[in-house]
Amino acid sequence: MGSSRSSLRRVPDGQQLLQETGFSAAVLLRLHQRFQFLDKDSRGHLRSEDLEAELSENPMGDRIVGAFFQPGQETVDFPSFVRVLAHFRPTEKNRTRGGEQPEPANSRNRKLKFAFQLYDRDRDGKISRTELLQVLREMLGLQVTEEQLQSIAERAIQEADLDRDHAICFDEFRKSLEKVNIDHKMSVRFLE
Amino acid sequence: MLLFGLLLLLLPAGADLSGSAAPLRGPVHASPSAPPRLLLPQPAAERGAPGVASTRSAESGDGQEEPAAAEHPHHGGGYRVVQWEWSYVQTPYVIAIWLLVASVAKIAVFHLSQRFTTVVPESCMLILLGLVLGGVVLLASKRQLYQLDPALFFLFLLPTIVGDAGYFMPARLFFDNLGAILTYAVVGTLWNAFCTGFCLYAAKLLGVIERVQADLMDFLLFGALISAVDPVAVLAVFEEVHVNEMLFIIVFGESLLNDAVTQVLYKVYISFVEVGPQNVQTADYFKGVSFLIVSVGGTLVGLVFAVILGFITRFTKKVRIIEPLFVFLLVYLAYLTAELFSLSAILMTFCGIGANKYVEANISQKSRTTVKYTMKTLASIAETIIFIFLGISAVDKSKWAWDTGLVSCTLVFILLFRAMVVGQTWVLNRFRLVPLDKIDQVVMSYGGLRGAVAFALVVLLDAEQVRAKDYFVATTIVVVFFTVMFQGLTIKPLVKWLKVPRSTNRKPTINEEIHERAFDHILTAVEDIAGLQGYHHWRDWEQFDKNYLSKMLLRKSVYRKSELWEAYQKINIRDAISVIDQGGNVLTSARLSLPSMASRASFPEVTNVTNYPVAVPVEPEEDKADQSDPEKEEDVGITFVARKVETPKQRPKSLDVCQSPSPLHPSLPSEDSHLPWKGGVGSPPPCVSVEATKIIPVDLQQAWNQSISSLESVSSPPAPAEPVHPRVSALSRLGGSRPASYTGPIGAAPAQAPAAFCFPERKKLMEEEEEEEEPGASQEMQPLMSAPKLPGAPQTPPPPPAPPGPGRRRNPCVYLRSLVTPPPGGGAGSHSHRPTQL
pTM above the 0.90 mark? Predict the structure, then answer.
C-alpha cells in the first residue's frame, strides 16, 4: 500500500481522485496503467477510437464509449476516465463516508442515471419510444423482426410510463427498476 | 425405465405379500420358485453387495417370473375364468401400491393440518411417517423387510431428483456463483471429511468412543461419507424455506458438486481398507488424479449428452409426442453412463444445465409443460420414497449398534467443521462482487444437511472389511435425522429471525428484462475498457454459443428467436392468463393491476376503455369468481382468445345481451367513438342480477372485445402525438381494419407456429386492460358454475359468427361454450387456429 501511495504521485490529480471516487490507491494505479496502455500515442488523453477498439463485439459499445466523453468534447483525460468508471464501483455496506459529497458516483441513483443516459441519446431527460427501439435493435440485432421489436418497446413503455407521455423519464425508469438490485447488477469488481 | 427400477424397491414387499397370501390361494399359485428368488436382492443389498449385483439379481428374478406366470393357466388343471394371478401381477402391483402409499402419504402430510405443515417441513413429516410404517412392519413381521436399497437409490431415485434439479437449474445464477460453489464443494468437503475422520480417530484414541472397533482408515472412510452435504435433503428443506436464490444456489450447488469429492474419497478409502493400510503408498498417487478424472469425466459425460440431446430435439418437429421422452431418456442415460464408468454421476446435472436452453427452444410448448410436470412428479415421488424409506430403515434392530460416544462426537464434529468450512468465506469474499455476509454464512453452515446419499453409501459398506459398519450405519441414521429433522425444523425460524432476504416469486417485468440485458452489455464494456477480467466474460461464451452451438443445436425456426422476445411472450401469456382467469372481468377495474406491473395504479386512460362493462357493485367478488371459472374448467381460455377473430364486431351489441337482467345503455353502440361510459354517463346503472351467472357472457364477451380492440390499436401502431388515445380511435376502426391487422403479426412471425406468434400481440393488449388476478376467489366459486354449464353445452349448436341479436337471450354458458369450441365446418373454422399452446 505504501508503495502504491507513493507512486500515486505519478497519477494526475491522484489524491483528489482518491477522495472523489472512493477507489483505493491500488485500483487507481491499475486504472492509470490501463489508461496509459489505451493511450497508444501517449497523448495524455483518449479518443473514442482508442476505446472503441476494445469493444468491437459489444452491441452497446458505441453508447458506452460515448458516455466517457462530455458533449462536444473529442477526448477524455484520466480524471474524467476514472470518474466514469467510478460509477461501477461496488457499494460498500458499512463504510459511511460522512462529510464528503452526499452522493458518491457509485450510489444507486448515479448508477441508474448513468444507464439512463445511455438510452437517452438526445439528452432530453426522457427515453422516447424511438430511443428505446434503437437500444433494442442494437441489443437484439437480427434476431427479431421489426414488429417484434416494436411490440416489446411498446409494452415496455406502457409498463413504465406512469404519466402517459409515451416516454420514460428518469423517475419512471428508476421506478421500473425498483425491485432490481442495482448494486449487484451495475457493479464491477475492480481488482486491487 | 424408472418403473423397472422401482421394481427393486418393492421386490421384498411383493415377496412378503405373496408369501402371506400363498396359503389362502392353495394350488393355484404355482410358482414357488419366484418369490424366494425375488427375495434375493434385499439381503444382498443389505449385506453391502454393490448396486450392480442386486440389479442383476432383480433382473434375473424378474426374468424367471415371466415364464412361471406364462405357464400358469395350464397347470391349474380345470378351466377357470376367475383365477388368482398374483404372481403374474405381483411386481408391478406392489410397485404401484407403494407409489400410491407414498403419494397418499404426501397428501396426508399436506392436509394433516395447515398450521402444522407450515412449521414442520415435508421431509420431516415423511421421515416420521416412515418411522411409523417401519414400526408397523416390524411389529407385523418381527423383522424389517424394507430398507432404502442403495442400488435402487443410486440408479433410480437419485437420478430423477438430480435430473430435475439440473434441468431446471437457473444456469446464469449457477455459473455466476460457480467459484463459491466449487470452493465449498471441493475444499470444504475435503476439509470436512479429513477433519471429521481424524478427530473421530482422536476421540477413539482418547477413549471417548469405546465400543467401536475401527482404525484410522475406517474413520476416514466414515468421515468422507458423512461430510457431504446432501442434495436431496437440501432441496427438500430449502425449497420450503425460500431463502434468496443466491444463497440457495450456493448451498445446493455445493451439495451437487461435492459428489465427486465424496465419491473419490469413498472409493479411495474403500480400496485402502481392502488393500490394508500397510500398502497404501501405491494407491496414494492415484488419489489426486482420480478426483480430476471423476469430476471432469462426469461433467464431460453430462455435456456430451447435453449436445446429443440438443441435437436430437432439433429434429423432432414431426414427432412432437415423443419429444419429452428424449429429454428423460438422455438425461437418464447421461447419469447411467457416468455410473457405468464410475464417474461422478451427479455431475451429469451439467447435462440438464447445458441442454436446457436448446431443448426448451426446440420442443413445443406442450412438450415443455410435459417435461416440466413429469420431471417434477418423478422427482417429488422419488423424494417422498427416499424420506419414507429413510424412516423405515431406521426401525431395524439389527442395524442399531449404538455407541453414544461415536454418535455425539460425530454430531459435534459435523456441526463444528461445517461452521468452520463456511469460515473460508472471508477468502472467497475477496473475489466476489457480492460478498457473503455473516448472516449468509450462518444459513449456509446451518443448511449443511446430510441425507440419503450418506445413508446409501454407509449401507453399501462391506461388513467383512469395515467391522464397525453397524455403528456407522446407526450413527449415519442419527446424523441424517438430526440434520433433516432438527435443522430442517429450525432453519425456517432461524431464517426469519436473522431476516435473511427471501426469494420472491415475482416475475421480472419487460423493463427489467430489457434493462438487465443492457446492464450486462454495459458491464462487459466497462470491464473491457478498464482491462479487467471479470465475471462478465461469460459474454465470450455467449458469443461462442451464438456462433457455433446454437447453430448446431437449435432449429432454424427458433434460432432467430431472441431470449428477450421469449421473455416478452411469457410475460404476455402470463398476463393473458390472469385476465382470462377472471373471465376477462373488469368489473372492479379501479383496483386492478396486472401482475407484471407491480406497484402501479391503473392508468385512467385504460380504465376508461375497460370501464365500460357493467359495474356490479354488489358482491363483485362473487361475480368475478363465477365468470372466471368457465374458462378455467375448460382449460381453453387461451383458445378462446386466440381464435375468436370475428368477435370485435359484436362488442357494442354484446352489451345488449346484458339487457337480460336490466338494460344498460341503449345508445351505447352508436356512441362508440366517444365512449359514453367513460365519464359522461357518470356511473352507469349497475346491472345487478339475481343470478350471477347471467352476467357472465356479457362480461366475457366484453373482455374479449376489449382485447381485440386494443389489439387493433397496437397492430396498427398509434401515432405518438395522436390527441385521442389510440385505443379510442381503434375502437372506432373496429369493423374494417381488423382482419388485415390481425394477419399482420402472423405474417411477420416465422411460419412455425402462427398462433404462438400472433397470440402475444393480443396478450400484450389484454394487459392494457389492467386486470387483477384474484386467485383465491375464483377457485372457490367454481362449483357454482359448473353445474349449469356442463349439461347445457353439448346439445347447443355452435353459434353463428354473428353476434346474438340484442333481444335474443341465450343461455350464457352455452354461448360461452360456443366461443370456445370450434363450430363444425362453420365459417369460423377457417379462422380457427389450433389452440395456442400454453
Answer: no
